[in-house]
Design a protein that fits this description.
Layout (H helix, E strand, L loop, with lengths): L5 H12 L5 E4 L1 H5 L18 H4 L2 H6 L1 H11 L8 H11 L5 E4 L5 H5 L4 E3 L6 E4 L5 E3 H10 L13 E3 L10 H13 L2 E5 L10 H8 L3 E6 L11 E4 L2 H14 L1
Parallel strand pairs: 1-2, 1-7, 2-3, 7-8, 8-9
Antiparallel strand pairs: 4-5, 4-6
The structure holds zinc ion (ZN).
The site of zinc ion has 8 residues, from loops.
Length: 252
């Protein structure tokens, strides 16, 4: 168990208990404890592979079979929400969160029971045809992939079925970004969890909220460039810290 000064936990709980239009902003640090590999930092996938090659839209367009072959052999299906995801569900139930805005693509917030989740970087549970823009569930694409790799679009026969996950070289989904910006401008508190706040434009969301008067509460393993702007900063594991904070909010 990470030792955290009780004062910081109490300050975070007090801040969140006042939230009426609060949002959570989450990143890879929330999913790591569910066994989802992170991409940046020590031991991250990006230290082993060059992201601009393996996760770039141009690479995918050149050879979608490479992605789908890898997926056939490596796709994990067993990740489960952890106590950090569940604490955010509880905070929403208590009336202090309107939504979770996430950089994660694993769907674990929805699986945990969060009511409104804005996915800034798309979803690994949905696939889009790059030719006709038809969308289909990932499970269906996986079944098709097992029969014929790579799968082709059931609507138009196109050869480029891609997870809606945003790759390098792609823009963020416009609707999600607009939703997140509107909620950021209206937010009184932003609870930032497990994000290094270094990836833009996503990190612009809490910055925009701060500029519009929101108070920031940061729970992250390492320092972030936003720590000086935040009302409360707690360095530690999300799955250990958040349940303690939300437990205190519930008791207030
Ligand atoms: Zn199509």
């Amino acid at each position: 168990m990470t030792t955290v000064a009780g004062a910081a936990l109490a300050e975070a709980a007090a801040l969140l208990s006042r939230a009426r239009s609060g949002i959570a902003f989450t990143g890879a640090g929330v999913s790591v404890e569910s066994g989802i590999p992170h991409f940046r930092g020590e031991g991250g996938l990006w230290t082993k592979f060059d992201p601009y090659k393996v996760a770039h839209i141009d690479t995918f367009r050149r050879d979608p079979a490479q992605y789908w072959t890898y997926s056939l052999n490596h796709r994990r299906m067993d990740a489960e929400p952890n106590p950090a995801h569940r604490a955010l569900v509880e905070l929403e139930r208590l009336g202090h969160l309107r939504a979770v805005v996430t950089q994660n693509t694993d769907g674990l917030h929805q699986q945990a029971g969060s009511g409104r989740v804005v996915e800034l970087h798309g979803s690994s549970h949905e696939v889009v045809c790059l030719d006709c823009e038809a969308r289909l569930p990932r499970d269906q694409a996986d079944r098709m992939n097992r029969e014929h790799c790579p799968p082709s679009c059931p609507a138009c026969g196109g050869r480029f079925l891609k997870p809606t996950v945003v790759l390098f070289g792609e823009a963020l989904p416009v609707a999600a970004l607009r939703d997140a910006q509107a909620m950021a401008m209206a937010a009184d508190v932003v609870l930032i969890v497990g994000s290094s706040l270094q990836v833009y434009p996503a990190a612009g969301i809490p910055r925009m909220a701060r500029e519009h008067g929101a108070e920031l509460c940061i729970v992250n393993a390492e320092p972030t460039p936003f720590d000086d702007l935040a009302a409360v900063v707690i360095h530690g594991k999300a799955g250990e810290i958040l349940p303690q904070v939300v437990g205190q909010v519930a008791a207030l």
